[in-house]
Structure formats: C-alpha cells, structure tokens
Amino acid sequence: MIEWIESVLGLTIQVGTVYLLASLGEIYAERSGVLNLGLEGIMVMGAALSFIFTLAYGHLAAILISVIAGILMSLILAVMAVYMRLNQTVTGLALTMLGLGLSGFLASPEVRKVILLALNPSLPESLLAIQEAPKLPEIHVPLLSGIPIIGCFFRQNVLVYVSYIAAPLMWFILFKTRPGLSLRSVGENPAAADAMGINVFRVRCLATMISGGFAGLAGAYLFLGFQPFWQEGLTAGKGFIALSLVILSTWNPLRAILGAYLFGGVEVIQYRLQLFGLGALSPYLLAMLPYLAAIAALVAVSIESVRKRIGVPASLGIPYSREE
Question: Number of structural domains, the chain?
Fold first, then answer.
C-alpha cells in the first residue's frame, strides 16, 4: 500500500511541477495587469527547443535556451499588449498558435536534422532521427529520500527542486518587498502607481518576460523531466490548465503549489482509475476532468461579482494609457 501511495504521489509531483512552473510566472504577469494567453505556445516551444539542444549540447544548454526563448516570445506579447495596447486575449492566442506551428516545424525530422548538423556537425547519424532525448537524472537527497511516503518529494530531478525553491521565493518577493508592492500596485491601479513614479510599462514588460521565462522552463521540464519523447503539440492544453490554476490559487505563489499538485493528482488518478475498471468504457471522460476544471475557472473569472470576490487584479487585461 505504501509503495502504491509513493508511486501515485511521486507521479503527482512530476505532473504538478509542469503546472507549478508555468503558473508561477503567470501570477507575476497577471498581478501586473497582463493576461498571457500565450503560455501554451511558449511551453511547447520550450519543449521543442529542449529536445533539439539536448541532442546537440546537453541538458543545461537546452534548459537555458528554452528559458531565453520563452523570454523572447513573451517580449513579443509585451510589445503588442503593453506598449501598443492591443487586445491581450487576441495577442496571447496568436502567440499560442505561433508557438504550436513553429515548434512542430522546428522539431519535424527533416528540419531538426538540418538544425542539429548546423549546431553540432560531429553528431553521430543515430542521433539525428530519434524522437526522444535523455531524461533528466533523479537526485536523491540523503536521508530524506529514504523516509516512507514523504521521501518521494526528495527523489526528483533538479527542475522539481527548483520549483520547491521558486514558489516560496516568489511569494516573498511579491508580498514582502518593495518591487513586489510596485508590481501589485501596477495591476490594481496603474494610474496611481504612475503618479507615484512607478514606470507602469517597464513593470508590466518585465513581469510578462518573467512569465515567458517560466513557461519556457515548464516546457523544458515537460520534455526533459517527465515525457522525453517528442510529438507535435506535446503540451496538449497544459498551458491553459496553468492559466486556470493561477485563478484557483488567487494569484498567490504558495497556493499555486497546492493547486498544481491537485491538478497533477487528478491527471494521475484518472489513469489509475482506469486500471480498476472505472472509466473503462470511456476513458476520455476521466481524461477531460482537468480541462473541465480549467474551463470552469476561466468562466468564473469573467463574471464581475466573482472577480471581486476572489480578488482579481483590478486592471487585469486592461491596457494602460497615460492620456486616458
């Protein structure tokens, strides 16, 4: 029984880390007033680039490139949504479609082979056609990893440990420091923040880039740490689930930990239930549970009374102009 619990909990942590990394950056973007609906596209680009650069140069280079790519893609959103004041929903969805299409093109066998040879001409022919990459190794923390049940938290790869540190650190910065106060004030009342000398455009741009960096990292983790076999559209809607998780966590990085593992647990349990015959007739009914939760959260946040009750940043999705 303990082994079964550890197995489920370990998988829950692995799946939940994808959502946690993506949602942590998105919390900062939305707290500043920017809705980044491009998470899905940035994540899948991070996954595709981590695949290519792992084969060419190894894990570290792949992770760094994925983060940089996420930052650059989110910079496109920042320019259009913050400086040009275009509709954030439309620009975010356009970014998602760009990421989905571009990742599929770059990671296709023919194009990937050309890129790999350009990056590292000495690569053996056997690596040019494979659809998978080496998975990030697990790091077992001495003593802690041997504790029953709890030990599965300490038998994970390096990016899971990064998420353990990032969540409380980002909470502290957001709620206990002056930069965090500036970020929250920009999302609540940008005009008042501007009058106090805070550069609203710069804060929103930086927050959006942080969102993109974490989304790229989440995509790299999804491929390297959880599912190291490439297929087009690898993220399969996980970016949109991360968006709903931000709402369910009420824009709080610490609550995002619980929400991420809740979504991860639902995803893991629906497969386990099929082993016991539940959902055998229609396994897709169980598989859609995380997406139903995501839709419900996104619908709820569109209702004005609900927005006020759960504390949605007052200027979320609203472009700011000094002339208005």
Answer: 1
Whether 148 is covered by a domain: the verdict is: no
- Residue 173: CA atoms inside 13 Å, Cβ hemisphere, count? 15
- The pair of structure tokens assigned to 118 is 């350009």
DSSP string covering 151-177, please?
Answer: GGGGEE-HHHHHHHHHHHHHHHHHHHS
pLDDT of residue 119: 92
Q: Does the pLDDT of residue 202 top 90, yes or no?
A: yes
pLDDT of the residue at 247: 87
Tell me the C-alpha to C-alpha distance, in Å, between residue 80 and each of 28, 90, 265, 283.
Answer: 18, 10, 36, 41
Residue 92 lies in a domain: yes
Band (268; pLDDT cuts 50, 70, 90): confident
Residue 139: its H or E element: strand 139-140
Q: Which two tokens stand for residue 54?
A: 């792992």
- Is the sign of the CA dihedral 81, 87, 88, 93 positive or negative? negative
**Which residues form the domain of 173?**
2-132+167-310
Q: What CATH number is given to the structural domain containing 263?
A: 1.10.3470
State pTM to two decimals. 0.91
In this structure, is residue 319 part of a structural domain?
no
